[in-house]
Amino acid sequence: MSAATALEPYQPNHGARDFHVEHYGLDLTYRVASHRLDGTATLSVVTLEPVDAIALDLHGLAVRKVAVSGASLARYSHRSGRLVLRLRETASAGARLTVTVTYAGAPVLVPSPWGPVGWEELTDGALCANQPTGAPSWFPCNDRPDDKATYRTSITVEKPYRAVAHGTLVSSRARAGATTWVYEQRAPTSTYLATVQVGQYDEVVLAEEPVRQVAVVPPTLAAAARTAFSSQGRMVTHFESLFGPYPFGEYTVVVTADELEIPLEAQGMAIFGANHLLPGSDDERLVPHELAHQWFGNAVSVASWQHIWLNEGPACYAEWLWSEESGGPTADELARLWHARLRRRPQDLVLADPGYERIFDDRIYKRGALTLHAVRGALGDAGFFDLLRSWTARHAGGVVTTEDFRAHTVDAAGGVGGDVLVVKVTSQLRAWLDMPRLPALLA
């Protein structure tokens, strides 16, 4: 299907299935005072079937120029958030194209059922909050969680601002009152996990082991950040023992001077608001939650938003695991608390297929965590954490579905307890994943 849009209910009007983007080269300049973004995006594209057009997602920004190498461009159109490049001749499956788009304007947030998302203007800077469909607010892309690519992001900002993007900082060059920051992300990355953060930031080193961990914060929040993330090094070490090696080269925490409704994860990064640093608040649980997403969601990504519980369930369960490790309530105590609370909620959500407008329903987070706790109870601690480590190792850099998890868990059950446990776990997963009524939480 030419210029194929994602005709499935969990990706309405975003993304295409007939090509894959292998790499994004983004050359950006952002002016904080005028909220203006100038960009050139160079996309390395591989066609997956014969195509006579390439349809990209780009919202709100004005396209100045488009070029295609590897095929002849006939014309392009840009309307309703879709940039469609019509080719003079059909490109065969496996064709390698380079698409270059030059664009500019004031970034406009993308509407979604949960509010506007994307490149957001702060009081003194900017952040990118892409999940689930905000990436097209700042670069042309194939906006699907399963179309993962590598990135090279160059972002120029005026002094004294600092720009932070997903990936490793490979250079910074100051000249004429501005600084250009260049980041490379070599791990396959979903578009919603690409990010740029701009602010008057200093860098605070949180830990050097087992990987380098830094906080990028306004100077006035440096001391509060050191306190709020004082356990970061121990947390990464503990999660490595449970989930496998940390999947990226480093971990960066960005703290904005503004308050944010919720923190959010990006590839190798998490973004918190100033309000999330308050000592003794419930927001402390979100530190392990966002860190755990580096394994569950970022290294191992969902093939569709239908399977979002595979991101949020483990991240929520990581909160409980860290509570247990750090002297708080045990995972079992928290599981029983949340099971009792969910019993009082409507029994109308199917975890494996909740519906697009429910993908951020809190019941997905908590029921997903409870599903893992039930599997832990069936397999025992050794079998369960072997399951998590083999899951992240097998699927690192790739995408997964609920059926993948089901098959992986059943295989693990066979290794732990043979056919009897396979039958038990198969029935258990059917109840937790496929049925709306909350199952009993067995002892």
From TrEMBL:
GO biological process, one term: proteolysis
Domain Peptidase M1 membrane alanine aminopeptidase span(s) in chain numbering: 232-414
SUPFAM superfamilies in alphabetical order: Leukotriene A4 hydrolase N-terminal domain, Metalloproteases ('zincins'), catalytic domain
One Gene Ontology cellular component annotation held by this UniProt entry: cytoplasm
EC numbers: 3.4.11.2
Chief localisation class: cytoplasm
Subcellular locations according to the entry: Cytoplasm
Binding site for Zn(2+): H289, H293, E312
Database matches in PANTHER family: LEUKOTRIENE A-4 HYDROLASE
Catalytic activity reported: Release of an N-terminal amino acid, Xaa-|-Yaa- from a peptide, amide or arylamide. Xaa is preferably Ala, but may be most amino acids including Pro (slow action). When a terminal hydrophobic residue is followed by a prolyl residue, the two may be released as an intact Xaa-Pro dipeptide
Pfam family, one: Peptidase_M1
GO molecular function, one term: metallopeptidase activity
Enzyme class, spelled out: hydrolase
Cofactor (UniProt): Zn(2+)
Lineage top rank: taxon: Bacteria
Protein name (database record): Aminopeptidase N
Keywords, comma-separated and alphabetical: Cytoplasm, Hydrolase, Metal-binding, Metalloprotease, Protease, Zinc
Cross-referenced CDD domains: M1_APN_like (cd09603)
InterPro entries the record matches: Aminopeptidase_N-like_N (IPR045357), Aminopeptidase_N-like_N_sf (IPR042097), M1_LTA4H (IPR034015), Peptidase_M1 (IPR001930), Peptidase_M1_dom (IPR014782), Peptidase_M4/M1_CTD_sf (IPR027268)
Record domain Aminopeptidase N-like N-terminal: where: 22-193
Recorded family membership: Belongs to the peptidase M1 family.
Free-text comment on the cofactor: Binds 1 zinc ion per subunit.
